[in-house]
Amino acid sequence: MESTLSDPSSVPDTTFAGALKQTIADNLSAHNKIDSTNNALRKASVGIIVVENDKGEAGFILTRRGKGLRNHSYQYALPGGRIDPGETLEETVLREINEEIGITVSKDQILGCLDEYETRSGFSITPVVLWVNDLSSLEAEPDEVEEIFIINLKELFRADSPKWVSIEESDLKVLQLPIRNRLIHAPTAALLLQFKEVALLGNFMRTDHIEEPVWAWK
């Protein structure tokens, strides 16, 4: 079944204090989540953290990975990481959020999960959606995170988004999401696009048709 993408002009109410939290929770609850069946992939989880910006609107936290990291250094990413032995994906994302950006988040702040996304670099990533009110302890861990951004949810509804690019190396198209003056690529872009369509709009969408740029394959 093909995904049902939204009309680019359909922007929901993104007021943080409104009904948005319940809308997201209800849409995630209704979503039939797909998990990876490839046991050779390393499991990871990341947080799509819905927060309030300085204008009272809802946004999400995006980071830029540290320059000194061995893998995917200086790339835009969602807070998260590899699931350690004995951990659940929820425990991992809560731990990683605290380690990377200083926020202490509890399990009851999790609204739901989206599909696992299989990466070219050998990971299967589960996006966990969280609602966080308190950003007083927000701080980048300098060895892991170069920058922290709070991105307005309306950025996901730009008229020039999403962009699809053909490459010689794959039959699938590379996804690009314009965010402010940047282009965010899969896997992060794939997770954010499904978050927009499923969690915010209640549409059906999968991510297995979304390709990553070649430089992200390693």
Give structural notes.
By secondary structure, the chain is an alpha+beta fold. The chain has one domain: Nucleoside Triphosphate Pyrophosphohydrolase (Alpha-Beta Complex). Helices cover 17% and strands 29% of the residues. The chain has 3 helices and 12 strands. A hairpin with a 5-residue loop joins β1 and β2. The longest helix has 13 residues. It is globular and about 45 Å long. The mean pLDDT is 92.
What are the key terms here?
218 residues, alpha+beta, Nucleoside Triphosphate Pyrophosphohydrolase, 8-stranded mixed sheet, 3 helices, 29% strand, globular
Query: What would CATH call the homologous superfamily?
Result: Nucleoside Triphosphate Pyrophosphohydrolase
CATH class: Alpha Beta
Give me the strand/helix succession. HEEEEHEEEEEEEHE
Count of DSSP strands: 12
% residues in beta strands = 25-35%
Characterize the overall form.
globular
Number of helices: 3
- The average pLDDT score comes to 92
This entry's quaternary arrangement is single chain
Largest sheet: 8 strands, mixed
What does the radius of gyration come to? Answer: 16 Å
Chain-wise SSE layout:
Layout: H1 20-30, E1 42-52, E2 58-65, E3 76-77, E4 80-82, H2 89-101, E5 110-113, E6 117-118, E7 123-131, E8 145-152, E9 163-165, E10 173-179, E11 182-185, H3 188-200, E12 210-211
Parallel strand pairs: 1-7, 10-12
Antiparallel strand pairs: 1-2, 1-4, 2-3, 2-8, 5-7, 6-7, 9-10, 10-11
